[in-house]
Each structure stands twice: as structure tokens, then as C-alpha cells.
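[READ THE FOLD]
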Amino acid sequence: MLAWALLVEAIIVIAAPLIFAVWLRKRWPLPWSLFGAGAVTFVASQVVHMPFNAYLLVPALKGLAPTGASLLIASIALGLSAGTCEELARYATFRFWRRRDHNGPAALMLGAGHGGIESIVVGLLALQAGVNAAFLARVGLDNVGLSAAQQVLAASQLSAPAYFPLLGAVERLVVVPLHVSLSCMVMVATAKRRPALLWLAIVWHGAVDAACVWCAKMLGPTTTELMLLATLPVSIVIIRKCLAALAPLPRVAHEPSVKPAGEVLEFVGVEKNFGEVQALKGVTLAIGRGERACLLGPNGAGKTTAIRILNGALAPSAGWAFLFGTHKGDRDLFLAAKRRVGVVPQQPGMYEELTCRQYLDFVRELYDAPDYEPIAQRLGLADALDRSSSTLSGGMQRRLSLAAALLSHPDLLILDEPSAGLDPIAAREMIDLIREESAGRTLLLCTHDLDEAEQVCDSVVILRGGRVLLHESIAKLRQRRTPMLAIRALGESARLEAALLARGFAPRTAGNEVQVPFSRGEEGVAGLLRELLDERVAVCECRIVVPSLEEIFLDVVRAPEGPPAKSERP
């Protein structure tokens, strides 16, 4: 029975940290080297503080009675020795070696390796003890050539209870969550430059170790395991808080549960979380070939997040984003799809030390694109090719950014605030260029300038609070609102209003003109004018006021429960 208990315990203690590491790898793209780094930090810390323990503290503890201040002081010294060495080793790993892995999953994996290697080693010892126990139970102590004193010693070591006989192995398993939480604390201290958290981790580690030593000496080893179990809720809270504070890492992409419809770009139930902030909430939309769509929404609606997911700079927390029918998990196909995309970012983003010619040469080699001279000539950059990009005006930098985006003759053009910060003349020139260059291409324009969107795009996607309110053609959106007929009469506004009221209209005065809802078309306007003129109303101006995109946008965004009517994809 003892042998079987040892074997079961050994399997549990060895397998638990490995299963946790495998689960982390399946959930996030984490290398096994992080698990190994955690193991190395543990071994390195033991090399430093174990001699101190072995030569100074352990002998002192053995000689101390289970009462008095000396035992408490020795326990605290032992705990702080371990805590200081282990947390500084972790800090060195994050600070100098894994400096690019400042994210929550990396901290979890390193913590799993740090605490897991100790659990695995003790589990292997338990496995060996189980084999020895089975052997001795089979042949008997009298048949292994032991002296009488050795037989007494072996019998005393094998007299533990049959359930979890090696309490030290259980302790090593229970302490893994503690090590994971400490790794998370040190990761936050490193990534956010908060040294106070590092010292807090050292103190917390030292306090737990000191309590373990004191409990083992005063109350027996079983109490140590119970105390460690009591720290589990604290470790879980620390892990959750630290993960919320650290940079997120995209989850491993698996085969999508939905099939793309073959559009240029598609979002299917896309969600994106930044800690406790949910930037996108189940976004589903599709933009077909040749469509020129504008992405609108107030600040914080999720527009830039959606574009970054589309570029592959971010991975969705849930759902799927398809670009030309492929997703980020298919790396080769997704890379080929990205080569069919030209992006003009909100900030120009070129290397300031390069000339325009050098920058375009770099982009041409990156995309294996043809010569850039024709595009530079078309965009008015021919005379600026040998100038440093840092000396260009804002408008010329935008032209250079657009030239780089067009260099590979992309099928999809993504523009993020292309005219932001430009003066009216430069902004108008940029819009004219975009309108010319987007002919025959699929276009996604993200802007706050609704006049700009109305000039370039034929459909609109409106986001609010991370959700799609509508995706519809601008022409259909205008049909939702009844056009207004604006009429101006020379000094006879009161008479004009009375004539309109008599015909069943509800006139309202706007400045020096009178407006009425009117949906009878141009023939109806002509008939109304004849009637007004017959009554000798001196009408001097009459025009149909078509609702602007700005008015439609404000109606949709201000609506308390989404769009005023059902949204349809154009």
C-alpha cells in the first residue's frame, strides 16, 4: 500500500506543473524556453542561498528548542534569504534576458518553471522511494544485506501513512501557485518600473517561507501544507491583478469555427480585450471587392483597434478576422494577403534619417515591387526624392506615405486619418489623390472628417462602444430621412408660412428661409412653386436640402438603442 501511495503521489507531483505548462502553450504562443528559464532561476537562486542556509541557519534551527525568539529570528532569516535570492534571480531574467516578453502569459510560464522544477525533482525522489518500498516489501528487510541498525532506520522511514506519505512533495506542489504569483509580481515590477513591487514580492516570499519553517518546527510538517493551502486565494488574487496590469498576448490561433465568405475583409464575432477594457464587442462585418467603405465612430469606438487587427498587429481575443479569406493563424497565407494591402497610418512613420528615395527603395525591396518613379511623379514627389523625409511638410509626408502604400499596387487600401493635422489646402489635395488612386480598389477609410468620407466613400460602417451600429450605403442612409425643401421669399416669410400651412405642410424658419419636409420629388416642387407664385408669394429661391452624412451620423450615434432602422450590407 505504501509503495502504491508513493507512486501515485510521484505521478501527481511530476505531472501537475507539466500539464499546467502544456495548457499555457496551447492557449498562448509560449516557448518551452520560458519554462526552462524559470527552472534556471530556481537553480541559480539555490546555488546562492543554500550554502548560507546549510552552514548557518539549518544547524542553528536544529539546535533550537521549539520556543523562543531565536527560532523566530532564524526562521525569518531563512525565509528572507530564499525570497531575496529567488526574486532577484527572477528579476534578472525579466530585466536582462526575456526583456521582450513583458506580458502576463510569459510570467505564468516562468513561474510554472520556477516552482515546477522543484516539484518535479521531489516527485522523482518520491518515485524512487516508491520503487524502493515496493522492492523491500517484496523481498523483506532481512534479505537485502542490511545491518540491524540499518534495518531499524529503513523501517522507521517506511512507517509513514499510506496516504501522501511524502508530505514534502505535497508542499512543493502546493507552492507552485505561490511561485506563479510571485513571477507575476516581479514581471509587473519590471514592465511598469515599480521597484516597490519587487521588494513586496521579496517580503511576501520571505514571510511565507519563514512561516513554513516555524510551523514545521513548532507544529509539525502537516501544518505547513495547511498553511500553504491557505495562501492559495491570495496567490490567485495576485495573479488576476497582475495579468490585468500586464500587456496582453494573443492567443494561439486554431482553425476557425466559421468559413470565410470570400470577401476582401471580414470580421466574424470579433472581440478584443485590453485587460478589463473591452474595445470590440462581437464585431461582424464584411467589405466586398471594389467597395469604398468609411469607418466612423466617436473616440473610443474601436476603429483603430479594428484596423490593427486587420493588419495583424493585434490578434482578436475572440472571433475571427479574415483578410482575403485567410487569418493570422495561417502565417504564410496571411503574409501573402498582407502584401496585397497598402496602409497609410495616422502618423507618417517613415525613417527620418532616410531620404524619400531611400525610403521608397526600402519599401520596394520589402514588397518586391516595381519601380517607384511613376508613382512619385504622379503624386508630385519627383522633385523631393533626394530630400530627407524629416524636412518635408506635413502634406508632402502624407504623399510619401501614400506612395509607399501604393508601391505594390495593392488590392486593398487602408487609410487611418490620412488628412489629420493638414491645412485645408493640403487636406484637399490629399483627398483628391485618394479619390483618384482608390479607383478600382477596395478602400477602408477611418476618419473623423465626415465631409471627407462623403467625398471618397460610397458606404459607411459606424461603430459605437465597440459594436457595429450599421453598415450601409450612403445613398440608402439618405433615404431614411425625408428631404427638406428650403424656400425663401422676398420679405414675405409670414405669408409664405401661411400658404404652406394651408397646404398641409409643417414649416419651420431657419435663418431667412422656410423649410418643410418634402418627398414629392422635382415635379412636386415645380407644382408647389406654381401654386405659390399664383398666390403672389414672391419666391426668390427654392432648393431641396439633402441630409448630410454628418446629420445621419449624429442621428445614429445619439440614438439610445442603435440605428433607427435595420442595417443592411451594401
Summary: Residues 150-167, 562-570 have pLDDT under 50 and may be disordered. The two ends are 73 Å apart (CA to CA). Residues 54 and 159 are 27 Å apart (CA to CA). Residues 104-139 form the longest helix (36 residues).
